[in-house]
Amino acid sequence: MMVNSENRKANKFNTKGNWFVIIVIVSFLLFPLVIKNDYIIDVAFFFGIYTLLGLSLNIVLGEVGLFDLGHMGFAAIGAYTTAILNTTFGIPVLVLIPVSAIAAAIFAYLVCSPIIHLKGDYLCIVTIGMGEIIRLTLLNNPFGLTGGPNGVFGICFPSIGNLLVIDSCVKFYYYIWIIIGLTVIALIRLQNSRIGRAWNYVREDVIAAEASGIDVRYYKLLAFVIGAALAGVAGNIYATKLMIVSPESFTFMESCLLFCIVLIGGMGSIPGVFIGAAAISFFPEIFQAFAQYRMLIFGAVMVIMMMFRPGGAWPRQRGKIQTESIIIRAEKSEI
Amino acid sequence: MNRIKLILIVIVILSVCLSINVLAQQAPIVIGLQTPLTGSEAIEGEMASRSVETAARMVNEKGGVLGGRMIKIEVVDDACQPRAGALAAMKLVSMREVVASISTYGSSVTQPASDIYEKFKKVNIAYGATGTGLSERGLKYFFRTCGRTDTQGIFFAEEVVPYFGAKKVAIMHDNTSFALGLAEETRNALLAAKTADLVYFDAITPGESDYTVPLTKLRETNPDLFYFTGYFPEAGLIVRQARQIGIDATFVGGDAAINEDFKRIAGLEYAAGCYQTQEALIQHFTNPEAMEFKAKYQEVYGDLPSSPWPVYAADALMVLAEAIDKSGSTDSDVLVDYLKNKMVEYPSITGPIGFDEKGDRVGTGINLYKVNADGSDSIVQR
Amino acid sequence: MKLIVEQLLNGLTIGSFYSLIALGYSMVYGVMKLINFAHGDFFTFGSYLGYTLLVMGTAFATSTLGVWGGMIAAMLVAAIGSGTLGILVERIAYRPIYPTGRLPAVVSALGASIFIQNSIMVIWGARPHAYTSEVVPDYIMNIFGLRINLLQIIILALSFFLMGVLYYVIQKTTFGAAIRASALDRETAALMGINIKLIIFFIFALGPALGGTAGVMVGIYYRKISFIMGWNYGLKAFTATILGGIGNIHGAMIGGLILGVLEMLGSTYVSTAYKDVFVFLVLILVLIFRPTGILGEKIAEKV
Q: Which domain does B201 fall in, by range?
């Protein structure tokens, strides 16, 4: 009896959860058709970019608990790879998406391998250093490649031949949100897989994980590589939208904002990243009217946010598998 | 009863029509201003915003444009960042009532912003972006009231170096878009004119306090002339530290390097005797428009803008008001035609303005200024 | 040869400022394990307080106490002001949050930093200000052919003096032992009867106070102050702390000096434009071979 009613409760929750997801997806799809203001659609686009970047940092920081404050550096690598290859060799932007991802991933692998064993705050300063090294090197225009402070401009729009050219605000909006949709599906599957569980294990207790036979070094490095690849993709999309990349877009402050996105949303929580990214991108625009006081309010809100919801706006729900399995076992035994 | 109702309805309709008419006539002409109100260049944004408001007041007090319509300014902050700049431009473009935009400070922010204005066919006038490449892209709606860095570089190589009789020149910049551009243009001009040897060319990191290490390196190359193309916060520190470690070379600043703040930061005893290649400081203008601007600005804010760029922003507003008024329309193509073809030597705050085919300003000159012992500036060479 | 000595002196001067700020930073960091992003802004706040007293107060302090007296008064005011601000920030922004974990505290620190920075901008204006020459002594001496600023010597001496005092307090006094114990293990220290609340009060008062004093010194020495100058110094302080080893207050001192000299080497022998790249590369190399910093960490690893 008890089991049946609990079963029904579990079912109801699932249905409700499904409805919620469907409503969200539909509203995202209909958004540009309802709101015809190009400026707001553009803000929604940058909301998407921050979400993608937040998702990429979520893998490193949220899942594995690695303290990464230089993540924009990977996005910069992706953005500049796209920019340079597109303007010099005319390679189409869509082809460059996997290329940028791989470039960022290789860079992450090479750079993180020697330092992956560092703990907590030491890793933090090293990632800060890496982000700064990338930005400063780009700024100084080595071999005349990167254009120095002016950056690289003239990047083409993404296009498949002459058929589908993504050049308007609305098209860019759908472009990025479809990519985010695919990414979210992949990430959820990753979360529930062996890799995801190993990552969470490493975050909770490194020594126990090591003792259980998990190759901690491999999983940490994997997290960095995948996170970097995703950031590289975000960099690519950012480059084609703005048509120009410059080192100013990839500062230490931006990495800090990404960090805040993951924490404000909830570490390891995918819906949380959406909320965090929304907060970071909509907030400055909504408060344009306050001019000078804009950033002041922003800082205060961050502190207040942490005071009242330190776990994040939408903390990761854990233990659902546990509860479900108890119900399933109880069900089976009843019968 | 019916007749009374009828009369009432007619009165209501008449008054509504009248008020619509009156409102339409009084509907302000909205001009957008994109400027950094927050961030490291917040001071430039503040001064630009104030200057443009002052200019708008000057126009409105003379009766506005197009038969009595007042100019209203819509300010949007772009924090001197490319992405925020693109968003700010989008915001102004999406506001139907904004006729044209004055945008912005910083070449790397102006670039993506001007791309957006071009796409949506809105006239945009840059006031603080001297990057040479900006007007070389074949854009139709892009203008600027400030000069270009290549003119300044040529002035330095061909006029300033022979003036001091210098044989060895050191150029220091700070790796920002503007400073690097000016430094490179100057280097190219020096190579072309062969008036002196370049013995030092390197960048400092802006935002720091201690430059004794690179300055010591510079001292060892023994230059006659030291040209710093960066901004006034660093310039002030650099001059003082340079003198303290024994660099005797004449110090020349680019046009972003020397202003009232520079003299405060360096201290008067070190600022005196410095020179500057400069477009226009409002203090030196004595034409009637400039005097009026200075008076109105000072009456509300108490001081004067400490760099040339805010005044160029004010000029952009004057130019737009004039174009709208004389061409009788707020349509972008009509305005472009007026500005490029029909505006000749319009007397603005900083002197006569016209625009060439690329949207660059016709009619700026670079001067060499000297800081005197009492803190005032004087023009030394034109 | 003379050049190298001169450059070394320059590097050490820069480094001594880093050390001072890193000291205050490391005190909080060592005990609370909190990356206090707002520390750079305490430093800025202190320098603005000094500016207000000396310059905006129509040189009242200088005329009554003389130039040197004015400097000392400014440093005291800045120390007290920054210390108070530190305690306030701790109570409002940190205390409710660090029981819940380290990372939310980092976000809170970042928020506090943005808030303080922009408050300074709103109160004093966005323009960079300058300590005017009337309130700043300026003698240049010529020792063995080297041009040395008297102020440089005084700042170096003062920094070492403060560091020495702090060293003595932490190494030789009982209270210092209590601080070191709390840095090792906060919970056990509390169990041993150490008044943790008092320790926290002390470090959040003294750390920012040191930062504020450093702010006045920077204002006097370099003269230019702006509301964003804390960010860069805060990052350098963090780097110095890590370089020396976490939890190691003396490590922060050494780390700061080494950082200054490294910057000087990078600037002179590599290129001024690539200076920071060089410094970070060296930092990464050091950490690869000595993962707990130069002086090492004094924390046992729990298994």
A: 150-278
Q: What is the DSSP string of B155-224?
A: HIIIIIHHHHT-SEEEEEE-SSHHHHHHHHHHHHHHHHH--SEEEEEEEPPTT-S--HHHHHHHHTT--S
**B265 contacts B233 by C-beta, under 8 angstroms:** yes
**Mutant choice from B43, B174, B175 vs A, greatest count of A C-beta within 10 A:** B175
Cβ atoms of B228 and B240 within 8 Å: the answer is no
What is the identity of the amino acid at C8?
A: L
- Is the bond preceding residue B104 a cis peptide, omega within 30 degrees? yes
B/e letters for C151-187, b = 16+ CB within 10 Å, e = fewer, are bbebbbebbbebbeebbeebeeeeebebbbbbbeebe
SS3 category, B369: strand
Quick check: B157 and B190 in contact, CB under 8 A? yes
Mutate one of B43, B83, B132 to test the A interface: name it (highest A CB count within 10 A): B83
Contacts of C106 in chain A (CB under 8 A): 259, 263
Asked if C114 contacts A304 with a C-beta cutoff of 8 angstroms, the reply is no
Q: How many domains does chain A have?
A: 1
Give CA separation, A191 vs A201, A269, A324, in Å.
Answer: 12, 10, 17
Q: Is the Cβ–Cβ distance between C159 and C16 less than 8 Å?
A: yes
Q: Which residues of C touch A126 (CB under 8 A)?
A: 283-284, 287
Tell me the C-alpha to C-alpha distance, in Å, between residue B31 and each of B74, B296, B316, B341, C252: 6, 20, 10, 22, 53
A249-279 confidence digits (pLDDT tens): 898 889 988 998 998 888 888 989 999 999 8
Average pLDDT over every residue of A115-123: 83
Closest A-chain CA to C238:
A125
Residues 6+ apart with CB under 8 A from B295: none
Residue B70 near residue B142, CB atoms below 8 Å: no
CA distance A42 to chain B (A): 7
- Within an 8 Å CB–CB cutoff, is residue A292 touching chain B? yes
Q: Is B67 on the interface with C (CB under 8 A)?
A: no
Q: How far apart are CA C26 and CA C296, in angstroms?
A: 14
Residue A309: predicted pLDDT:
81
Domain end residue (candidates: B244, B278, B312): B278
Q: Is B132 a domain residue?
A: yes
**Residue ranges, chain B, pLDDT below 70:** 1, 12-26, 280, 364-365, 381-382
Contact by Cβ (8 Å): C204, C84: no
* Domain boundaries, position A156: 2-334
Do the Cβ atoms of A130 and C108 come within 8 Å?
no
Tokens of A255: 């990495």
Residue A249 and residue B83: Cβ atoms within 8 Å? yes
Alpha carbon of A131: minimum distance to chain C alpha carbons (Å): 10
Tell me how close the Cα of A114 comes to any Cα of chain C, in angstroms: 7
Q: What is the DSSP letter of A150?
A: G
Residues B181 and B140 in one domain: no
Give C188→chain A minimum CA distance, Å.
21
Other CB atoms within 10 Å distance of the CB of residue B326: 13
Contact check, Cβ <8 Å, B209/C276: no
Looking at the structure, tell me whether residues B35 and B98 fall in a common domain.
Answer: yes
- What would the pLDDT profile of A164-190 be if each residue is shown by its tens digit? 888 788 888 999 999 999 999 999 999
Q: Which subunits count as partners of chain C given 3+ CB pairs below 8 Å?
A: A, B
Indicate the residue of A115, A136, A303 with minimum beta-carbon distance to C284: A115
In chain A, the residue whose alpha carbon lies closest to the alpha carbon of C110 is A299
Q: How far is B88 from chain A (nearest CA, A)?
A: 9
Q: CATH no. for residue A50?
A: 1.10.3470
Burial of B303 (0-12, 13-18, 19+ CB in 10 A): exposed
B175/B172 Cα distance (integer angstroms): 9
How many structural domains does chain B have?
2
